[in-house]
TrEMBL record:
Belongs to the nitroreductase family. This is Putative NAD(P)H nitroreductase. The keyword Ribosomal protein does not apply. It comes from Desulfosporosinus acididurans. It comes from the Bacteria.
């Protein structure tokens, strides 16, 4: 499928068929997320694939939206708050891969880069969530390509979801993504005009 077609046909799907989602398709979704860019190539996003009836039933206590747990699969998208600890390694990998060749970054010292002043915790979490959003967007567009429907869900109780999924303290759940074959064909949702998006040309 052409990227433009996927961009145009993706919808938030809130009604799913009960047909199971093949394991290979789930792997394809996560693979699409894996290819996403991330700041300093930190790759802080992690996923929990929720398939069992028991776990999905528990999710009904963590989100007010019943369609979430009605989907045959729910992917919990998380970030690892400890990802910044890998900054030196990631920077070194990038350098070794030639990412900075012939640029002013070529002389960058990965260890010194990793020792820069850390962001304050709120900014750090925002930064990691931003990275997760890009990964989720990759995933949702690949889903369209595979004939699957998804919906971003941020209406959930963070602590309840973490408890259900038995996630350690260093993880934040960014979104729940129900995944399944769509049982609805929604029309395009309204968008503001292009002219309104462009503040100005300078
Ligand atoms: C960051 C984000 C959070 C969202 N959270 C929810 C949510 O909690 N519940 C829900 O039903 N839809 C949620 N959505 C879906 C939006 O309502 C939807 O993207 C928007 O209405 C446009 O519709 P479309 O995705 O079909 O184009 C969310 C979307 C985004 C990008």
């Amino acid at each position: 499928m052409e990227l433009l077609d996927a961009l145009k046909t993706r919808r938030s799907i809130r009604r799913f068929k009960t047909d199971p989602v093949p394991e290979t398709a789930i792997k394809e979704l996560i693979e699409a997320a894996r290819l996403a860019p991330s700041g300093s190539n930190l790759q802080p996003t992690r996923f929990v694939v929720i398939k069992s009836d028991a776990a999905r039933a528990q999710l009904t206590e963590a989100s007010p939206l019943p369609f979430v747990s009605q989907a045959p699969v729910v992917i919990a998208c998380c970030v690892d708050m400890e990802s910044f600890g890998g900054m030196g390694t990631r920077a070194r990998e990038l350098k070794e891969a030639g990412a900075f060749n012939d640029t002013p970054l070529e002389k960058m010292d990965p260890d010194a880069y990793a020792k820069r002043k850390p962001m304050d915790p709120a900014a750090a979490e925002g930064y990691l969530r931003l990275n997760a959003a890009i990964a989720v967007d990759h995933l949702t567009l690949r889903a369209v390509d595979l004939g699957l429907g998804t919906c971003w869900i941020m209406m959930f109780d963070q602590e309840k979801v973490k408890k259900i999924l038995d996630l350690s303290e260093n993880y934040r759940v960014v979104a729940l993504i129900p995944v399944g074959y769509p049982d609805q064909s929604p029309k395009p949702r309204p968008r503001i005009d292009l002219e309104q998006l462009i503040l100005k040309e300078v």
